[in-house]
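Q: Here's a chain of 341 amino acids. Please give me its 3D structure as tokens.
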Amino acid sequence: MKTSDFYYDLPEELIAQDPLEDRSASRMMVLNRETGETEDQHFHQLLQYLHAGDTLVINDTKVIPARLFGKRESTGGAVEILLLKRRADDIWETLVRPGKKCRPGTELSFGEGLLHGTVLETVEDGNRLIQFHYEGIFEEILDQLGEMPLPPYITHKLQDKNRYQTVYAKHDGSAAAPTAGLHFTEELLQQVQDAGVNIARVTLHVGLGTFRPVKVEDVTQHHMHSEYYEISQEAADLINGTHARGGRVIAVGTTSCRTLESAAGEDGRIEPCSGWTDIFIYPGYQFKVVEGLITNFHLPESTLIMLVSAFAGKEHVLAAYQHAVEERYRFFSFGDAMLIL
């Protein structure tokens, strides 16, 4: 299976640069994964496709303003860092630019000295471990100094940080948003519950590994970076009970999907757990839990389009993407949605 098998041609103007004013006004393509048939709808029509007794599984991770701009204390040279993973209380694994000038021992300063950092060592992929020093509460300083780590294909400046955050975001820790959830409003979530559809919350802190390009031609040789996840007893009971009653488990986003499939036993049963997952789902994978998927439109040749292709079939997915291009859907993080059932 080749990476190039998952390529499609996308006009650059279809990459959404800004979120819509009304989250649920996004368009929504409905894809039948058995037949490949599609319907063109809007996200606020989601309830038409849900049944009482179904369960939506949402990822309640919260994106932190993880991009920091500062300087090297020795030279005053500019530096940009992206917080990827907390290793200890004040030690973070980071992506640093320019990396070559941030060797171990380099002292960094952010926000006119409000925050200081010391590069401790270089780890996998050239990432740096940085020890931070500050007075006060780290999260408050980060909120003051940091910017949302928008993907590189978004070139417009985000006016409101909360628009790169789901309305149900709760647990700090992501370097990127679980973007399928951006389409939900508080009102729509309430309508879903009023219709007898359950909502189960899981947490997976999204790392940049999810979005890193696949650089090998043989898909099976690609290695995913690990991401931390948690599933509570309450969520496990909801999901297991849904299957027992004949309802459908519908994952909101590839991150919720990967969380469930990582935690499931061979019988599809979910146990409460937490840990790290590097699961890589591509065609040939047998899904144990997920029976429906809400997702955005993903980059060509990405691990995300591979996961969607595993769920709905590569031919169906690429045909649906071609339809989306022809119908001028909006793509990627701030773009439109797809419901696969």
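Q: Can you summarize the key feature?
A: Residues 71 and 78 are 4 Å apart (CA to CA).
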